[in-house]
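Sequence, please.
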């Protein structure tokens, strides 16, 4: 009776080769995991940029709307004097600052947003219609400059006299 060592039988050899994970399999799995983690970080970054842009665009729209409503409630003589004032809009006239928290928020807003007002007489209106443009500029998380603007017209003869017709002479 002859005894054969167990390591030389073909069945034993194939069982041993299936028993463990090779270094190549571990390297491939690590590379796949690194790729998944890197791409998820990039997706998160672009998501945060989009969220920041959306949030600041909303705030810019609120600033523009507030300033437009403020101007619409002014008298014609006050609108004319406003045309001679500096174009920079002071955000302190828009946002309340009754508490320390509101003052802190205002300071943050002033550090982010730069708002200007442009007011010109509409051509052919005999200086009875003013075109008002509010423009806001800010930088996003990635340093990209963003701009938004809104325009309206203000008529001399009243708050709701939006239509002005020039009669040819």
């Amino acid at each position: 009776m002859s005894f054969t060592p167990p390591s030389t039988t073909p069945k034993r050899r194939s069982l041993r080769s299936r028993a463990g994970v090779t270094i190549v399999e571990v390297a491939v799995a690590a590379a796949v995991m690194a790729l998944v983690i890197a791409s998820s970080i990039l997706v998160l970054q672009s998501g945060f940029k989009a969220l920041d842009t959306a949030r600041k665009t909303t705030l810019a729209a609120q600033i523009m709307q507030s300033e437009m409503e403020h101007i619409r409630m002014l008298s014609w003589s006050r609108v004319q004097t406003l045309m001679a004032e500096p174009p920079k809009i002071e955000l302190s006239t828009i946002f309340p600052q009754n508490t320390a928290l509101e003052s802190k928020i205002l300071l943050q807003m002033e550090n982010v947003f730069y708002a200007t007002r442009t007011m010109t007489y509409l051509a052919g209106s005999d200086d009875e219609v003013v075109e008002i443009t509010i423009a806001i500029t800010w930088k996003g998380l990635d340093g990209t400059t963003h701009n938004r603007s809104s325009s309206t017209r203000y008529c001399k003869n009243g708050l709701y006299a939006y239509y002005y017709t020039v009669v040819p002479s």
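The radius of gyration is 34 Å.
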